[in-house]
Amino acid sequence: MGIVRKNEIMKSNNQPAVEVSNLTKRYGEVLAVDNISFDVSKGELFGFLGPNGAGKTTTINMLTGLARLDAGSIRIGGIKCTQNPKAAQHLVGVVPDESNLYPELTGFDNLCFCAALYGIGKNERQKWARELLDTFNLNDAADRKFAGYSKGMKRKLTFAAGIIHQPPILFLDEPTTGIDVASARQVRQIIAGLHRKGTTIFLTTHYIEEAERLCERIAFIVNGRIVRTDRTADLLQPIQGKHMLILSVSNSGDKLPKKMTSAFPQHKFDSSEHNRVSVESTEPVNVSPLVRFLEERGIQVTEARRHIPSLEDVFVQVTGVESGLMRKEKEKAGGGGNQ
Amino acid sequence: MKRWIAFWNILAKDMQAYYLKPPNISWGIIFPIAWTSMFFIKSGSGLESILALLPGVVTISILFGTTSMLSVTITFERRSRSFERLLLAPISLELLMLAKTSGAILFGIANAFVPIIIAAFLADLSGVAWSLAVPAILLIGIVSTFLGLFIAVSVSEVFEAQTFSNFFRFPMIFLCGLFFPIMSLPVFIRPLSYVLPVTYGVDILHGAVNGEHIMSYTLDLIILGVFCIVLFLLSLRNLKRRWIL
Fold it and tell me: Nearest by CB to B81, which of A100, A114, A161?
């Protein structure tokens, strides 16, 4: 199926690019995906945000035909692929969460091979491979074996392999995990560029900032269930104009927020994190009275830091998943996803 | 046409990445030479025994060449997740697996011709019925490859594939009439010989080289063909059930 033909199929119907209804997947006793439904419009950049083990990769595997569904249905580009996932694979490109190209082949040969899998002729696939190597700044490594690539280079080539056949729908599974800051930035720019050109993108990530920066609409998934789906702007709207302050203190007892709320009823206080008091308000927070109030009660304030509310706050509020958990995952992945 | 671009490139990639590697080429040559020499020396009956040994050595070369390579390459690709790339491609699973197995079939056939070439220098092969020997070699190559495929998609690790392969391969040396006639086996073991596909290929080869065969060629060819189809379909079924979870 040629590029023009693929685009014709995408344009010829008014159905969403991806349509998922009541999708369920169980591995033994574990319910990996629990009755989720969502759709992604043509040309949309849709984010699927959740902690590790939330069901993101399982969902992508079902959408791309790498995993069977236990229940539910999937349409890709209007093609019902529940029974026959191969039918929709012409329209789809996949960048998996781990680099999975052939270590024995060079970067150039890997790209040409991936293009050949989609029936692209020799001259065309060589031309596109060269263009992509150039786009991803991998020209110098084109003739080196993939096994000798650095982790960042491997991720970039894997990304290039996922788009070599110019798919109108692209599934990206944690595309910036485990790569350096500069490469992550470049990958995000490429994602934004593909989106501008009209590619429908389904992006899974546990980098909240990445989702906030790139996605038009986001679904929060926790323990296999979608807890909220909304436009990014609408998710952020309630926290727009909010003022937040984090105070590091020598001692934060259970009763401290209550005492502070009595003294400053215009603000909301929380001290669920050890030796930290967070202050939330709809008006600018004046630090001096708060510090004075605490010091008069023998509590030392070691730091006062303004906190700019972000999607992370919305995520924590909606899902109940601690932001610290997501942060730890980021550190564990060792990547530059949020830079 | 586009499907065949994918088919050809999968085959070409496998040849480049696995089968045409110097260690595999040397293994493909040394292994049959070692088998030929071993049985020739063991027979102790001089050059005249070469024709009697040739069908068995040819078969063993194909069997070990195909099953070793395929069980390793497919299991390895699954472990490294590069096999997912192939599963994501818009080609049918049947065509994909035919492409993946074609390299092993060619490798097996190439292995088969090593002892034949050696034998050509040491014995008179003018009496060999090549019109029978060549299809037999081809079918033994296909059936052994599909046996290797069946093993590869039934396990998760490379070492499991090797162990499982040996479970089939070594008994076949003794049970399929490669070097000992099936009729010389104890009666209660003989049924086992007839459920192993290689028996039928070796029977044709013995007939083609020495004129001695126990079943009709047509029956041998039909049964080999059935084994090829059944093993391939079982492999696809296992692949769908075990790999596409």
Answer: A100
ipTM: 0.87
User: A339: pLDDT confidence band, cut at 50, 70 and 90?
Assistant: very low
Closest residue on chain A to B2 (Cα)? A119
- List of domains in chain A: 3-237 (3.40.50.300), 241-308 (3.30.70)
**Is some CB atom of chain B closer than 8 A to the CB atom of A121?**
yes
C-beta atoms of B88 and A92 within 8 A: yes
Interface subset of A 161-200, CB within 8 angstroms of B: 161
Tens digit of pLDDT for each residue in B74-93? 888 888 889 999 999 999 99
Q: Whole-model pTM?
A: 0.84
Shortest CA distance from A145: residue in chain B: B17
Averaged pLDDT, A67-91? 86
Taking CA atoms, what residue in B is nearest to A110?
B13
Question: What is the reported pLDDT for A95?
Answer: 95
Q: How many CB pairs under 8 A join A and B?
A: 76
A92 and B CB contact within 8 Å: yes
Question: For A213-230, what is the mean pLDDT?
Answer: 93
Inter-chain CB proximity B13 and A102 less than 8 Å: yes
Distance from CA of A122 to the nearest CA of B (A): 9
3-state secondary structure chain A: CCHHHHHHHHHHCCCCCEEEEEEEEEECCEEEEEEEEEEECCCCEEEEECCCCCCHHHHHHHHHCCCCCCEEEEEECCEECCCCHHHHHHHEEEECCCCCCCCCCEHHHHHHHHHHCCCCCHHHHHHHHHHHHHHCCCHHHCCCEHHHCCHHHHHHHHHHHHHCCCCCEEEEECCCCCCCHHHHHHHHHHHHHHHHCCCEEEEEECCHHHHHHHCCEEEEEECCEEEEEEEHHHHHHHHCCCEEEEEEECCCCCCHHHHHHHHCCCEEEECCCCCEEEEEECCCCCHHHHHHHHHHCCCCEEEEEEECCCHHHHHHHHHCCCHHHHHHHHHHHCCCCCC
The pLDDT tens digits of the residues spanning A112-128 come to: 999 999 999 999 999 99
Does the pLDDT at position A325 exceed 80?
no
Interchain pair A90, B88: CB under 8 A: no
The pLDDT of residue A8 is: 59
